[in-house]
From TrEMBL:
<dbReference type="InterPro" id="IPR005300">
    <property type="entry name" value="MltA_B"/>
</dbReference>
<dbReference type="InterPro" id="IPR036908">
    <property type="entry name" value="RlpA-like_sf"/>
</dbReference>
<dbReference type="GO" id="GO:0008933">
    <property type="term" value="F:peptidoglycan lytic transglycosylase activity"/>
</dbReference>
<protein>
    <recommendedName>
        <fullName>peptidoglycan lytic exotransglycosylase</fullName>
        <ecNumber>4.2.2.n1</ecNumber>
    </recommendedName>
</protein>
<dbReference type="GO" id="GO:0019867">
    <property type="term" value="C:outer membrane"/>
</dbReference>
<dbReference type="GO" id="GO:0009254">
    <property type="term" value="P:peptidoglycan turnover"/>
</dbReference>
<feature type="region of interest" description="Disordered">
    <location>
        <begin position="161"/>
        <end position="184"/>
    </location>
</feature>
<dbReference type="Pfam" id="PF03562">
    <property type="entry name" value="MltA"/>
</dbReference>
<dbReference type="InterPro" id="IPR026044">
    <property type="entry name" value="MltA"/>
</dbReference>
<dbReference type="InterPro" id="IPR010611">
    <property type="entry name" value="3D_dom"/>
</dbReference>
<dbReference type="Pfam" id="PF06725">
    <property type="entry name" value="3D"/>
</dbReference>
<keyword id="KW-0961">Cell wall biogenesis/degradation</keyword>
<dbReference type="GO" id="GO:0009253">
    <property type="term" value="P:peptidoglycan catabolic process"/>
</dbReference>
<feature type="domain" description="Lytic transglycosylase MltA">
    <location>
        <begin position="139"/>
        <end position="296"/>
    </location>
</feature>
<keyword id="KW-0456">Lyase</keyword>
<dbReference type="GO" id="GO:0004553">
    <property type="term" value="F:hydrolase activity, hydrolyzing O-glycosyl compounds"/>
</dbReference>
<dbReference type="GO" id="GO:0071555">
    <property type="term" value="P:cell wall organization"/>
</dbReference>
Length: 409
């Protein structure tokens, strides 16, 4: 049994059957942009340089079938949730070709999956230094009603909250605010965390659930999702629904800057311990992170599946990677080479092919990633220890796939 089995169970998805009706995948799910009759050439950004699979330490030891199944989840995507207009984009015909090729070829073994990846993708090394952390889905006790023991709310999305885009951005809108609240045909700045802690949204009926511990609530904000064990015996899963749009500030980093410890002292576990041991300083520290997250009840996933990521798909423990969508498109295959111990194989480092299907407020940069570990306390312990340098290598579709694409058409 692997470490992912022990945490939540590996979700091995079948190869996805592809519908030829309409677009299979829309921007920015790795191959953003309109489909065309002619093959499109990739636009390779300056921070990528082509390399060889033989130069990727750990490539041949990875489970390529699991990685490929994670990528093929995107074949069933039809909606177009965002449009970052990124480099590395391909037309929709390219993803259609890849999915058709995967379903046409017999891909039932590790060798066949690796052959498919090496034939259809080229590796490009990210030339800037990389860094990875870990995240998980917390499991905490909660109540559907406020009581003496459960009085810390998780809030739902306020009416009128919208992401600010180039299309709807007012001329005078502050550049540091990613979201706003539409009222009377204009956008207003949302209250930030300190204001919400002081009751700025009280009376709007936004409370989804009530927790016992403000530290639990804060970490759910950081993780973006949670399983709630309700006092009535039911289970509620909550996921990200929006945010105030204020910049995220890592409170662990603030403590390091103030000489309270080292980065190694303030892993997720270390930060939680500090907060527990300093209750008189806890809320003041929370207030310094102005970003505030809103949640929705998630009812469209199975209990065996992971939480829904930003790309709209259930996350896969050990394969899902949160990235900065300003630099890496959703659906991208990213090979990580790290010194993180691989808990599946003693004596081996964590070097594996990941799928970019989530993001987070603290995940910024060309080579910054957050590894989804799983759900529950054990996952949290593991995720909290992940703070490692990493080499990022992005796999881009092979530009010489015209013959394959033509045959698929």
């Amino acid at each position: 049994m692997t470490w992912m089995d022990r945490l939540t169970g590996v979700i091995v998805l079948p190869l996805v059957c592809l519908s030829l009706k309409g677009a299979v995948l829309a921007a920015p799910l790795f191959f953003a942009g309109a489909g065309s009759a002619m093959p499109q050439s990739p636009k390779i950004p300056d921070h990528l340089e082509e390399t060889a699979y033989s130069d990727l330490t750990g490539w041949h030891q990875d489970d390529h079938l699991a990685a490929l199944n994670g990528f093929l989840r995107f074949c069933s995507r039809h909606e177009d949730p965002r449009d970052p207009t990124l480099p590395m984009n391909y037309g929709l015909d390219e993803i259609r070709s890849l999915c058709l090729s995967a379903n046409r070829e017999p891909i039932n073994t590790e060798t066949e999956a690796r052959r498919f990846l090496e034939t259809n993708f080229r590796p490009y090394r990210v030339t800037v230094p990389g860094f990875v952390t870990g995240y998980f889905e917390p499991e905490v006790a909660a109540s559907r009603k406020k009581t003496d023991g459960f009085d810390v709310p998780l809030l739902g999305k306020p009416a009128g909250l919208e992401a600010i885009t180039p299309e709807n951005k007012p001329d005078d809108w502050p550049t540091h605010l990613s979201h706003g609240r539409r009222a009377n045909s204009r956008f207003e700045e949302m209250p930030d965390r300190p204001a919400i802690m002081d009751g700025a949204l009280d009376g709007e009926g936004l409370e989804l659930a009530w927790l016992a511990d403000p530290i639990d609530a804060y970490f759910i904000h950081v993780q973006g999702s949670a399983r709630l064990r309700m006092t009535d015996g039911s289970v509620m899963r909550v996921g990200y629904a929006g945010k105030t749009g204020h910049p995220y500030t890592g409170i662990g980093r603030l403590l390091v800057k103030r000489g309270k410890g080292t980065p190694e002292d303030f892993t997720m576990t270390g930060l939680r311990s500090w907060l527990v041991n300093n209750p008189d300083k806890r809320d003041a520290l929370f207030r310094e992170n102005r970003s505030y997250i809103f949640f929705r009840e998630v009812t469209d996933t199975l209990p065996s599946e992971g939480p829904i990521g930003a790309a709209g798909l259930p996350l896969v423990p050990g394969r899902s990677l949160a990235i900065d969508p300003d630099h890496t498109p959703y659906g991208a295959l990213v090979f990580l080479q790290t010194d993180l111990p691989d808990l599946d194989a003693e004596g081996r480092s964590f070097s594996r092919l990941m799928v970019a299907d989530d993001t987070g407020s603290a995940i910024k940069g060309k080579a910054r990633g957050d590894i989804f570990v799983g759900s529950g306390n054990l996952s949290g312990d593991i995720a909290g220890r992940i703070r490692h340098a990493a080499q990022f290598t992005v796999l881009l579709p092979h530009p010489g796939r015209q013959e394959t694409k033509a045959a698929a058409d």
